[in-house]
Amino acid sequence: MAELPMNLRDDNISEETKTLISSLPRERDSQGKLCKYQGCWYYYNTLQALINFQTNFQPRDSDIVLASFPKSGTTWLKALAIAILERSKQNSDDPLTHPLLSDNPHGIVPFFEIDMYLKTATPDLTKFSTSSPSLFSTHMPLHTMKEGLKDSPCKVVYLCRDVKDALISRWYFRCKYQNKQVAGSILESMFESFCSGVSFYDPFWDHALSYWSGSLENPKQVLFMRYEEMKTEPYVQVKRLAEFLGYPFTKEEEESGLVNKVLELCSLRNLSGLEVNKTGKTWMNVDNNSYFRKGEVGDWKNYLTPEMETKIDMIIEEKLQGSGLRL
Ligand code: A3P
């Protein structure tokens, strides 16, 4: 079996974090040891990275954080944000210099707890980003991430996706990096973990609710976006994103077709066809092409039984009751 990515392991933990873990709720799944910290489940190395981030990250007010539950379209959101910010810097005579053409979106926008703070508590941040604004990303829930942002007014964009599609996407992704056949038995066990709320970054409902509440409390700081809306009305949504980030498309840019160019550059078809995404790997040794699959809404219908569908829908309905959030 392929070695697990470092963030899923438990071999890089300080004595202090060991003591903390011993006081937390703990579980085990087929990949490793999990503990529940601030309401969310993490593998131990990820918890260490997250604590490193909370303690040591020095935000700048202009920083932008792209947040999501795993397999919700993070790669797409990163690509769009990069393209939106990058357009002010681009030399139109030389479009081949665009960073998306030579790196995967995850190589350009690092995760706090997966890339930056995983190996060391005090990373050299210039290695990750020197430009302003800097783009970062995370799968942590909002309340946990905010501890690392201290009181900085950094903008946060959350991308939410139908949880059944995210589950199927996660199943494929997991089988791929573990070099396993895409087996129904793995999906069944992931489904059970999801329903019990005990799985990496779960419970999903609390995750989504943290950002939902944050976006209601402070809409200028937290933008709540949906994968499905990006699929059905990409033009409107990319404009909404650009506006929120403080880089709205001008009338001239719209008239010149730039919004469509950004969408085309960031389309699944285009990104997945780029050499860097066909052959490259992230620094955690995950193939770049694992981040691109079908990108369809409702693909879960091909895999989940009606019983599974009903169970997930009932759980989500119950957990979101009274919140105003509908999924
Ligand atoms: P599927 O597995 O359903 O196809 P993440 O980026 O959070 O890891 O999520 C991966 C999911 O987003 C995968 O979904 C992938 O195909 C989809 N995706 C990746 N890039 C995309 C893009 N440019 N446009 C739309 N969907 C994209």
From TrEMBL:
The protein's name: Sulfotransferase
EC numbers for this chain: 2.8.2.-
Gene3D superfamilies: P-loop containing nucleotide triphosphate hydrolases (3.40.50.300)
Keywords carried by this UniProt record: Transferase
Organism: Capsella rubella
Family classification: Belongs to the sulfotransferase 1 family.
One Pfam family of this chain: Sulfotransfer_1
Recorded GO MF terms: sulfotransferase activity
Keyword Transport: no
Top enzyme class: transferase
Domain Sulfotransferase, chain residue ranges per copy: 61-324
SUPFAM superfamilies on file: P-loop containing nucleoside triphosphate hydrolases
